[in-house]
Design goal:
Length: 203
């Protein structure tokens, strides 16, 4: 579903508070509101660190691992594994369309990916009957997101596999004032020392 469309525009950026990281490196520190997400792993999409994509456990959603895309000027998009699958399938084609100044649009349930009215940029949005959330990404940001998306998918898979271990650890450690060792058979993909410290910040 593609047709030509382009225009030009500029946007001002506001810096997101972040730890001292190199341009495109990630981290596993709690970020952008540690009361909402545990073991958040963050990847920045631009050199200014104004846009990011992250993977983490959401206590308010039964500790489900989810992907978040955000910036200072927009309400973050919270993506499920199905949304992530759709993005993985269409990000490369969206990049190609932007490079050719062609319009590209995909609608999959509440997720929409389309070329923006802003020259060489795209909009990723989630909408329902009550609300609509969206984020505008420039070609360079879409290209970088496409390039690193396999890492995001792999992290989501690892976190999903470890979800029951995380829940059990939280239930075990929540009342303790000293570090609790995880069971021997617990997932090796979880930083339990960090999880213990983060639990204390949200409870």
């Amino acid at each position: 579903m593609m047709e030509g469309e382009s225009s030009s525009s500029t946007s001002n950026s506001k810096r997101v508070r972040s730890p001292e990281l190199d341009m495109y490196l990630d981290c596993v520190n709690p970020m952008f509101d540690p009361s909402r997400v545990l073991l958040r792993r963050v990847f920045f999409l631009d050199p200014e660190k104004t846009k990011y994509v992250s993977v983490g456990f959401y206590p308010s959603r039964n500790y489900q691992p989810l992907v978040e895309i955000g910036s200072p000027k927009s309400i973050p998009l919270i993506l499920t594994d199905l949304h992530v699958k759709t993005l993985a399938e269409h990000l490369p084609a969206q990049c190609e369309a932007l490079c050719r100044d062609e319009h590209y649009k995909v609608v999959d349930g509440d997720l929409k990916i389309s070329s923006s009215a802003t020259y060489k940029s795209a909009v990723i949005s989630l909408s329902n009957k009550k609300t609509k959330k969206s984020i505008n990404l420039r070609l360079s940001e879409i290209r970088h997101l496409s390039f690193i998306f396999f890492m995001i998918q792999n992290q989501l898979i690892k976190y999903t596999e470890a979800m029951s271990d995380v829940i059990n650890y939280v239930l075990t450690a929540i009342g303790s004032t000293s570090y609790v060792e995880p069971p021997a058979d617990a997932s090796k993909n979880i930083l339990y020392y960090q999880l213990f410290e983060e639990i204390k910040t949200i409870m």
